[in-house]
Amino acid sequence: MEKARPKTRLSGQRASLSVCFAIVLAAGISLEAQWIKLQTPGLPRLPDGKPNLSAPAPQTSDGESPVGPSGVAEWPTGEDGWTIALASLPQTGGRPAALARARAARAKGLTAVGLLDSSRYASLHPGYWMVFSGIYASEAEATSDLEDARRFARTATVRRVVP
């Protein structure tokens, strides 16, 4: 007959750490849900209170891109135009870094700051998150705001966006 192994202090510590991890994870999920709720006031809600991300984005009457669920502007679906590219970050670096850059630009006073997946646009080199500022009908309009954008990003350039 085998002897039962006595519980060691280490296994008790592992159990305690597992419980602590579960509590922290649950708290993080709850905080994320509250954050999303605060950041997406205009979106319709699902029965559980989460934003309905599949709902069509609201349109603005002034032609400016509406703010999407991520808290930054969204390029109008299927439309081409001109914009100011503030940064192009490789997608391998992750979307959160690009979103942080877009939010920082918006905090500095730039308007209609958003994020584009360059792989979805024929006029852009694929594989990048492009942080943009403004949606313009012409190159001249975009160029007129380029100097303001360069206060945030020295290398800002005017780019054509074609779906």
Total domain count: 2
CATH architecture of the largest domain: 2-Layer Sandwich
CATH topology grouping of the largest domain? Alpha-Beta Plaits
The share of residues in extended strands comes to 15-25%
Notable traits:
Alpha-Beta Plaits, 163 residues, 18% strand, alpha+beta, four-stranded antiparallel beta sheet, 4 helices, 2 domains
Protein described:
The structure is a single chain. With 163 residues, this protein is an alpha+beta fold. The chain has helices spanning 9-39, 95-107, 139-144, 146-150, and strands spanning 81-90, 113-117, 128-136, 157-161. The protein has a 4-stranded antiparallel sheet with strand order 2-3-1-4. 23% of the residues are buried. Residues 35-44 and 51-64 have low confidence and may be disordered.
List the helices and strands and how they pair.
Elements lengths: L8 H31 L41 E10 L4 H13 L5 E5 L10 E9 L2 H6 L1 H5 L6 E5 L2
Antiparallel strand pairs: 1-3, 1-4, 2-3
